[in-house]
Design brief:
Number of domains: 2
Low-confidence stretches: 50-90
CATH class of the largest domain: Alpha Beta
Order of helices and strands: EEEHEEEHHEHEHEHEHEHEHHEHHHEHEE
Number of strands: 16
Number of helices: 14
Distance between the termini: 41 Å
CATH topology of the largest domain: TIM Barrel
CATH superfamily of the largest domain: Metal-dependent hydrolases
Strand order of the largest sheet: 9-10-11-12-13
Radius of gyration: 23 Å
Shape: globular
Strand content: 15-25%
Largest sheet: 5 strands, parallel
Length: 467
């Protein structure tokens, strides 16, 4: 057994009986002790006092200094303290480590990424930074998407995600001939390789019109053959879209799976794919989960239309994923002779308005180092911190942590993930921060990873490995 003492845990991720900070506190976290046995958390309770030395010191630095050396002794930096708890004398009893108020999160959930596109920037850069140039640039690069190429790039991305503390990833996979089977088969290979350490879900990505006829059924079956968790698609506005949605919903219903869409990734007021999806879900009484990512154009529509669409989304039970980093990068790019050249909006959907209605909202990485987003590192902490800053989630700080933990876990059918509670997986991230203020101010500080009864320092792979 491993005991983690004096862990500072966000209240939103704890069982309700523990989720109450001090009445006069501005810090929405509480100090807890955790017990881990095997690969599960077996107990969580309030810590009984302040920080204390580890029960069984791991090295000489944890012993009390002598009187002569006390004045000169200084505590080791949080990230430098012993990574692995030591064993009781004689090998008896639990191992224990005092986290000294370090913030602890469950393994993160990154519910919208593109592993087939990742780390292609060096060979396929998007020099304008615009959405349609990203499409054409990566369209030309797909000839390079062999099994070995995908294993190298996507495997590296998963290692980055894992070392940053992510334990669940849902990736969209471009699905069209001739590369579809190679891409899905490779993702299934990676899923098997990471089994037991990281959950990898896949969703096919193609035009919503592609599901018509026998070819559309074959496309859906190919994705499901390789373990897809849902069917997916994207579409621009068109008179045929309601019919395409009805057909896709029928295909998904026949196969007993949910849907995960890309919608309205633009700043056009007349782009209302989200609204049409909600109407189609209600019209067809679709019983399975529906997720919609991006939803950017909603933010530039008239207020009354926004409210009407929000109500439809709520009634349809749709879950929303915002991709702040990628959409901030792509949306509202302006080139001369446009005036002004500076972008006017952030590319964010109406995150707060959805939350006020009780619509689940998550945030995710989306693209990483490719033509759609030149940056990123599959780091859910970066996604979280930037989402708080960009979307003003500090105004609901306590619940903000849900956007990369419990909310996306529930969205994609893994409700046991993204929480710190008895029975939850013992996959935790120990951050070098003692409060939300420290975390949000220095998100790149070192981390430790709890994997069952072992604790170790995180080691992100070097870019040199990509060649």
């Amino acid at each position: 057994m491993l005991l983690l003492r004096n862990a500072r845990i966000p209240v939103a991720l704890l069982p309700e009986t523990l989720a109450t900070p001090a009445p006069d506190s501005i810090e929405p976290s509480v100090r807890c002790d955790l017990a881990i046995e095997g690969d599960q958390i077996v107990s969580v309770g309030r810590a009984e006092g302040g920080s204390q030395a580890p029960v069984w010191p791991a090295d000489s630095r944890t012993h009390p200094p002598s009187a002569a050396g006390a004045a000169a002794a200084a505590p080791a930096p949080l990230a430098a303290r012993p990574a692995v708890a030591s064993t009781a004398p004689g090998g008896r009893g639990p191992r224990a480590i005092d986290l000294d108020d370090a913030m602890v999160f469950p393994g993160f959930v990154d519910a919208h990424v593109h592993l087939d596109k990742t780390h292609t920037w060096d060979r396929a850069p998007n020099r304008t930074g615009t959405f349609f140039d990203a499409l054409s640039t990566l369209g030309r690069d797909k000839d390079n998407w062999t099994r070995s190429d995908l294993l190298r790039r996507a495997g590296f991305a998963l290692r980055c995600a894992y070392e940053h503390g992510t334990r669940v990833v849902r990736t969209h996979v471009d699905t069209g001939l001739p590369w579809a089977e190679t891409s899905h088969a490779t993702m299934a290979e990676l899923r098997a390789e990471w089994a037991g350490r990281l959950v990898l879900q896949t969703v096919p990505l193609c035009g919503m019109d592609a599901y018509h006829g026998a070819a559309g059924e074959a496309l859906a079956d190919l994705a499901l053959k390789y373990g897809a968790s849902a069917l997916g698609g994207f579409s621009l506005m068109s008179p045929e879209l309601p019919g395409h949605l009805d057909r896709l919903i029928a295909v998904a219903r026949e196969r007993g799976v949910g849907l995960d869409f890309h919608v309205d990734e633009n700043g056009r007021e007349d782009a209302e794919v989200l609204r049409l999806v909600a109407e189609a879900v209600l019209r067809n009484q679709f019983p399975y989960p529906v997720v919609c990512g991006h939803c950017c154009s909603l933010a530039v529509q008239p207020v009354e239309r926004q409210r009407s669409t929000l109500a439809l989304v709520k009634a349809a039970g749709i879950r929303i994923i915002s991709l702040p980093l990628c959409n901030l990068y792509l949306q509202d790019r302006r080139a001369a002779p446009t005036f002004p050249l500076t972008p006017h909006w952030r590319g964010l959907t109406l995150i707060h308005d959805f939350l006020e209605l009780g619509v689940p909202v998550a945030c995710a990485s989306d693209n990483v180092r490719d033509a759609f987003y030149a940056f990123g590192d599959m780091d859910a902490v970066e996604v979280y911190v930037q989402s708080v800053r960009l979307a003003h989630l500090d105004s609901r700080l306590a619940d903000s942590v849900r956007v990369v933990t419990s909310t996306p876990a529930e969205m994609i059918g893994l409700p046991e993930r993204g929480r710190i509670a008895p029975g939850a997986p013992a996959q935790l991230v120990v951050l070098a921060a003692r409060s939300f203020s420290e975390l949000l101010s220095r998100p790149g500080a070192p981390r430790r990873l709890v994997e069952g009864e072992e604790v170790r320092a995180a080691h992100v792979p070097s870019y040199e490995e990509l060649g």
